[in-house]
Amino acid sequence: MYAWTGNALHPHRHRWCSAVLLTGLICYSYHPFHGETEARIIFLDVGQGDCAVIETPRGQVIVVDGGGMVSFPQKSWQRRQHPYDVGEKTLVPYLRYRGIRHIDYLIMTHGDTDHIGGLQKVVEQFPVRLVLRNPHPPRTATERKLMRTLIEHGARITAPSPGTAWTLEPGVTWQFLHPDPAHLSTDGRTNSDSIVFLLQIQHFRLLMTGDIEQEAEADIVGKWRFPPVDVLKVAHHGSRTSTGESWLAHVRPGFAVISVGRHNRFGHPAPEVIRRLQSHRIHVWRTDRDGAVTIRIRPAGWTAETTLSVAR
Q1: Which residues cross the membrane (predicted)?
Q2: What is the value of pTM for the model shown?
Q3: DSSP label of 232
Q4: Which of 14, 94, 199, 235 qualifies as a FRET site for 22, CA 20 to 30 Å off?
């Protein structure tokens, strides 16, 4: 403002100066400098569902699931005129707030509504480069619509096989551990066929588990060996059918995150799961009590913070 109005003797020079400064400011806001030193992982509070956003030090964006409302039979007077959309109300605003304009990797661990229901609004507004999903064909109208939109918008879609691994950038690698396309469930339930992957950012290890149950945990334990993980995303919102003793002994996490809705009708997380985590001295964050959980990874170490501070 001073450069634009400050000197009547050299108005053109000052206006050129102000134009250059304004252009630089706009360019910086559109292409922020990441510094290549910090990665960020946030487990968003999406109620009874799963959603995580990972930003690598060089600015690549990974979205894992998108939350969603599980539907139950309702009478006409119980139906909302404008149903709540977690993608529109939570995930899209967060991505905008972070200055994200495209998604490099979208991981759909499986097709349940509480994992993909919020992604429709996201893929309509953000270009997606690569989609990784389990091998099951779309089973619901919600999933079929989402897949059509992704294809129409030019996203590549693949189902990674166990053992698939690559380096996303220096210091950032991931490996996919599950499911095996040759041994998928045939009963229509896809929880245990969720994508499971191990992400390593510098010294930090995160294990993402979708909704796998104990049979899938046993399969992974029998096939893979890896160092202790720093943070485990507890499978299936803390359901009693997951997070068994042998699984925790094998994974050896220091911390765990449970993505779960407050006062949900399923009783998640199950008391026995909480007791198992406590018996292994694993610190637990829960989105129903702690709100969103943000993890920042730097060369010197990693820290975590929660949105809410609720008395236990």
Answers
A1: none
A2: 0.86
A3: E
A4: 94
